[in-house]
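Lay summary. Proteins are chains of building blocks that fold into shapes, and those shapes determine what they do. In this project we predict the shape from the chain. Here is one chain we studied, written as its sequence of building blocks.
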Amino acid sequence: MSDSLPDWAPASVDLERPNAARVYDYLLGGACNFEHDRQFAEQLLATIPEAREVARRNRAFLRRAVRFCLDSGIRQFLDLGSGIPTVGNVHEIAQKAIPGCRVVYVDAEAVAVAHSELILQGNDHAGAVQADLLDVYRVLTAEPVRRLIDFDQPVAVLMAAVLHFVPDSADPASTVARYVDAMAPGSYLVLSHAAKVDLQRSQDGWKLYNSTSTPGGGRTREEVAAFMAATELVEPGVVWLSEWRPETPEDAVDPERSIGYAAVGRKP
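And here is the predicted shape, written in a compact code that computers can read:
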């Protein structure tokens, strides 16, 4: 894609600064990114060579978690910080398995939401909202959420690879707790998060992100587990991305290369 805006993209999109959603899209092989995003991603790969593998492992965890939720009876999904939908996104996985599953994507990034709306045209069971996940009231009262998500019934709330872009000063734990409070018993919280590891290249990678519109940082396993405090952790608990219910033994080889944790919790 050239750095002239496509017809579907909002005119307000900032082409000058990389954005995490568009960088992630590039790492996954998507086309909804701009030159600054691609340049940043290549810098990131030079600093953290496993960055593309980490993105793919996170995507694979999300796929497994959605299927687990489906097997557990969940038929509605609220995907917070959803990013730019790529192949194998939540509504494709859920609706292919069980037609009629309802999915709402929420992201603050205009390109992510515009592309979501484009691919969801004609899909009456899916929608998109442009909002900051920290604005819980705005998210929960948005028209697509009110139309598609019934919080009196179990729901899966997904926060995949997004909370590491929320600083402690914004009190992400309180935000997570408010979403869990809104969920009916039997609902699931699905979460993945960058790990705080003692690797210079990881620290250098976060320094790169600090120059973008989406700075961030990793957290410890204990800090990630604290986000799940109001839920009952599903086995195997808080683990490396590739260790959460791998489909084959090969999937979990060198799990620490994930540089990220995964967890699913059930609201009692």
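What the prediction tells us: The chain has one domain: 20-266.
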